[in-house]
Amino acid sequence: MRKTIYLLLTLVLLTSLMLTACKKETATPVAEAPTQVPPTDAPPTEVPPTPIPPTEAPSARYCDDGLEGETFTFYSQAGLTGPLSTILGTAFVNALNDSIADLNAAGGICGAEVVLKLTDTQYDAEQEIAIYQQTKGEDPNLMSIATYGSGATIALAPLLREDHVVNFAAGLNAEAFYIPPDGWTVGVAPIYSDQFAGFIQFLTESWDDIKPEGVGDEIIVGVIGWEGPFGAGAITTESLAYAESVGVQVLELETYAISAEADVVTPLQSLALQGANVIYIQSLGFGPAQVIGTLHALEMWNKVIVGGCNWAINTDVLTILGESAGAALGMYGVFPYNWWNDTDLPGVQQAMAAFEAGGYPASDKGVSYITSYGGTFAWATILEHAIDMVGYENLNGDAFFDAFKDLGTVSALGIFEYDVRDGTRAPRVSQIRQVQLVDNALQFVIVKDFFELPDTRPSAE
Questions:
Q1: 92 contacts 76 by C-beta, under 8 angstroms
Q2: Per residue in 242-298, pLDDT tens?
Q3: Which of 2, 164, 192, 197 has its CA 20 to 30 A from that of 230?
Q4: Cis omega (within 30 of 0) on the bond before 180?
Q5: pLDDT (tens digit, 9 = 90+) per residue, 189-213?
Q6: Mind listing the domains of the chain with CATH numbers?
Q7: Distance between CA 201 and CA 303 in Å, rounded?
Q8: How many CA atoms lie within 13 A of 315 on its CB side?
Q9: pTM for this prediction
């Protein structure tokens, strides 16, 4: 009799908003597109991307026996309908389907076919729990799931620990990952507090070269984020302690509603009145676009350095800005993965070929497609290693996570890398990239290549 082992796939993330959504009238003023795109102070860098080496495949033993006729299922849950569904968009769904098709074309998992089950949660925490419990009830031997928001990360963390199920999470909440230690939630990118501390490190190293004209030596950072745990993720006790240790002042967090009509003027004016010369954005999709447009409307853009978390610097932000996309020139972002313009990397080439074969719009060429595509192959590496370690008949959540931890780091086709070494549950390295004009096109250009981020993991004590 066929044994079907259900599992889930990963990845994420983030958002590719419909062009129509970005054209809604909003109370937030948006800058007009400049007639001439202004040059950025930072010239295009010649720093090449750093390849993330693919994880070496285990020397298969049980895989050699072949699992033809068996099926593995990726379980993924995300907001496919509802008011927030456009934030992540559909690119990640295309990426999951494409990567699974390519994986199956290459022989699947030890000969077994891979299928996808993606369930709608509307990004509602109660629905995230209900869908997970339904999935667990359907497959008592569930080994992993993939989720896409901080609400899901926080709500599911205790259930996953109890059930011994790995969550590949795009919601990068520090406490959900690390309190208590050795949890079952694993991030596709660094926790937000590590990202913020890494950006502060970049500022202190580069301030004399990048600070706006007329700005002094003191760095004063104002963080503006969405209401909720994601928007508050950058500022923690640990990230504030790091900032203080390097002489950087961080103002109290300013928040705004997750709405295209949110008031962004008031929080930005508040930060300006407190002397902020750096604005750090902790939102995604239309959120950063609102901040960028408002900074121009308030004539603040050239008076501050603008940066953001990994989701804040993405193709969808430029798409939403539309004809005003040049307004983002000069923005920096934490960038913990390789990108579409790193065309010398085989994993990027593979993702590009799948994307082009799908005939998708250029606006979908963002973070959610490239990381979701690569993540499927990282998951396959873990599962094949688990089969090699314990055999197909002995697979369960413990075997899956043991194999994951035995590998330590797992490459997603060199696009990004999971890290579960020594209690780590999220990657701890990143690049810094900047929006620059290259060959008359806006590009995310490396200004600081992969470096180890300051450690802001929370203590369980």
A1: no
A2: 999 999 999 999 999 999 999 999 999 999 999 999 999 999 999 999 999 999 999
A3: 164
A4: yes
A5: 999 999 999 999 999 999 999 999 9
A6: 4-17+49-190+341-423 (3.40.50.2300), 27-47+192-336+429-452 (3.40.50.2300)
A7: 20
A8: 23
A9: 0.87
